[in-house]
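Sequence, please.
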């Protein structure tokens, strides 16, 4: 009798194991099918060819919004790093509830997702989930790629094909013959869409994902950059806008910040009388950069260096948790984006995401630089508990969970939220910015 019971237990145990393996195999099979369907690619696609600037500039090449001809401002809501995972029945519900309340309260003219809309093995569904949400609210929105948006089961071509089906999504791949997949303008017209009514423009750029170099690993925490042909396109686009409206101003949106964000942080520390790394101080001094370059700086940098080490990015002393473009040893071929911005004298503000626990903002050499307040509840910070997996990957708990880090300048715990950018459209104060981080509690 005992042998019969033992045999029966073994059969039940193997049945359970078999069922689990069966479920896993079914899941892998379904994901494999989804991967095959959603990873369709096209050799060439986009809205037009740039041809090194030979293409004639035309406003019809770009999406646009119109505001009232007597409007005194245009309101832009930055949505930074929502990192949607699965949609319903997850923490994404909290993210979308926040966005729902914020959109209803602010009624922005346009929302801009500055990358990492998703970090999910169900990429296609996450994009569709978000796009449906915005479409239901008849809310115009634009999007630039982050470093996570196409990591798993979906090609950028498939994402492009999906998003272009939505009336209220203004996303474009941009030129088919330059680096990146979200290089475009969103033009703002006061009144009817006519050249003489062109009033403002939003510049979207793809800051890439990870350097395509054999000696760079994901856990090196180094990132791609805006490439030279993108800056050539930017120059062409700005000169085209200026040929129509000589006084036009623009703001710029991409995911991974530029090094000037770190410069602004260190200069602000100097202005407070705080010590900064010697290499940074020497670098700034040699470039003739001092505290006169900054004004109206606020916010904090609470991002850790990911490894709790004195690891020096690019060996230049910039150890603060600002993970800027091209910050890898030996990377020297990326253009100076900020130099182009200054020389063309049209873009007056730059907004980024990427570093979730930084909300630093202020003027640097006359240009407003701002991190958007992180919107996503399904990403760090504020996971409900510490993650043992972090140690498996050689990381510290600071990466995903350390309540002491997630505080504002007054010591209050930072909240998820959105950043609201209001641009003055009056003749008397054209282009003046009002930028506010509005946390979730702001909309209760």
């Amino acid at each position: 009798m005992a042998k019969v019971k033992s045999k029966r237990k073994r059969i039940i145990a193997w049945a359970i194991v078999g069922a689990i393996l069966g479920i896993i195999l079914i899941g892998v099979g379904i994901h494999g099918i989804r991967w095959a369907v959603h990873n369709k690619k096209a050799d060439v696609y986009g809205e037009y060819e740039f041809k090194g600037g030979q293409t004639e500039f035309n406003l019809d090449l770009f999406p646009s919004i119109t505001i009232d001809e007597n409007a005194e401002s245009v309101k832009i809501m930055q949505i930074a790093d929502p990192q949607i995972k699965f949609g319903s029945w997850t923490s994404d519900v909290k993210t979308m509830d926040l966005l729902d309340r914020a959109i209803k309260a602010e009624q922005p003219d346009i929302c801009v997702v500055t990358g990492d809309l998703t970090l999910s093995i169900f990429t296609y569904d996450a994009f569709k989930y978000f796009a449906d949400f915005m479409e239901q609210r008849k809310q115009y929105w634009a999007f630039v790629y982050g470093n996570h948006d196409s990591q798993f089961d979906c090609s950028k071509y498939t994402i492009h094909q999906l998003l272009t089906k939505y009336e209220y999504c203004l996303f474009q791949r941009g030129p088919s013959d330059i680096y990146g997949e979200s290089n475009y303008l969103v033009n703002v017209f006061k009144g009817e869409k006519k050249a003489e009514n062109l009033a403002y423009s939003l510049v979207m750029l793809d800051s890439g994902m990870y350097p395509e170099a054999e000696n760079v690993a994901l856990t090196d925490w180094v990132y791609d950059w805006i490439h030279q042909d993108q800056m050539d396109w930017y120059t062409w686009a700005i000169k085209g806008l200026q040929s129509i409206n000589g006084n036009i101003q623009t703001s710029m949106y991409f995911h991974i910040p530029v090094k000037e964000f770190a410069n602004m942080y260190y200069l602000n520390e100097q202005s407070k009388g705080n010590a900064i790394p010697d290499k940074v101080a020497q670098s700034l001094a040699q470039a003739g950069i001092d505290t006169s370059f900054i004004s109206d700086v606020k916010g904090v940098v609470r991002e850790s260096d990911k490894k709790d080490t004195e690891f020096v990015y690019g060996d230049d002393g910039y150890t603060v948790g600002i993970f800027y473009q091209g910050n890898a040893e030996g990377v020297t071929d990326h253009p100076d984006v900020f130099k182009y911005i200054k020389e063309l004298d049209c873009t007056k503000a730059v907004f980024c995401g990427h570093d979730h626990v930084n909300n630093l903002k202020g003027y640097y050499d006359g240009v407003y630089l701002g991190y958007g307040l992180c919107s996503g509840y399904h990403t760090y910070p504020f996971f409900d508990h510490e993650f043992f997996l972090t140690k498996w990957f050689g990381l510290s708990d600071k990466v995903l969970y350390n309540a002491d880090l997630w505080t504002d300048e007054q010591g209050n715990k930072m909240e998820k939220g959105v950043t609201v950018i209001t641009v003055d459209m009056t003749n008397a104060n054209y282009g003046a910015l009002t930028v506010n981080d509005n946390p979730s509690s702001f909309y209760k």
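Residues 308-314 have pLDDT under 50 and may be disordered.
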